[in-house]
Known about the structure:
Layout (H helix, E strand, L loop, with lengths): L3 H11 L8 E2 L2 H7 L2 E6 L9 H14 L6 E4 L3 H13 L3 E6 L4 H9 L3 E5 L3 H15 L2 E2 L6 H18 L7 E5 L4 H13 L4 E7 L5 H7 L21 H10 L2 E5 L1 H15 L9 H8 L1 H4 L3 E6 L12
Parallel strand pairs: 2-10, 3-4, 3-6, 4-5, 7-8, 7-10, 8-9
Antiparallel strand pairs: 1-2
Amino acid sequence: MITFDTIQGAHDRIRPYIHRTAVLTNQTINDRAGAELFFKCENFQKIGAFKARGGLNAVLQVAQNNEGSAITTHSSGNHAQAVAFAARQVGMPAYIVMPRTAPQVKKDAVRGYGAEVIECEPTLDAREAGVREVMARTGAVLVHPFDDDRVIAGQATAAKELIEDAAQDRPFDVILAPVGGGGLLSGTALSTHYLSPTTRVVAGEPEGAADAILSFQTGRVEKAPYINTIADGLMTSLSERTLAIIRTHVSDILTVSDPEIIAAMRLIWERMKIIIEPSCAVPLAAVLKRKEQFARQKIGIILTGGNVDLGKLPF
């Protein structure tokens, strides 16, 4: 069970290695949404995404507990970079299984942190088989992208900072995060539950990878009816672990289309002058799509990352 002490311990552990990222506002976007929005800018985080938090919390504990001499994981991008970055901090080799279709910019970044990239076919079965082969060959310890309490506790520190830095005068009515495998959403929901229990937590999900909303409704881990979205970081299904936390502590999951994601992404680029990736724009897209649901409320949004391929912008 992830308690508040677990999250506080994770924060203390990773604090020397991460940025306490800015919380930004934008009047034009507030006017467009009809609400008061506070953006937690994890696109400014080490490795350009919130996943540095969970990767560090897990890898630091593997090293401290002498659980193994190497690290492995499978990821299409940001978690791969997080684990490679964290392994470098503790001087451990990292073996990262990545689908061959992963953005080249993310593969290059993983190699830049000193990790070995093992490419595989773009299926979950291929990714998991690749990790099993690495573990058998090297004895590496698996740091799963989201189905790991240590990763979830690390991700929870982003919402913890958001609440501490922007909700001292008045609590948030809602905090939104995107959902893929559910590590960030689970952590966000837990931090909010412990620190701001009157605040609702809502997830944004692409229509083209809509497994979490089905799982949320049925209580079972479901597969998306189809996978076709620009939000490449949100294509993963939930795990039993993340689904249990989400069904306990999340109020709703809202889906948005790719055109709505692209419009929200462009709005942030143009009005806030910051770089975000498509997956990052999903929660804002949900707010803009359902203005009446969020009207006049104080809203926190986790901006998850900025690792976008600048040669393939959607606008």
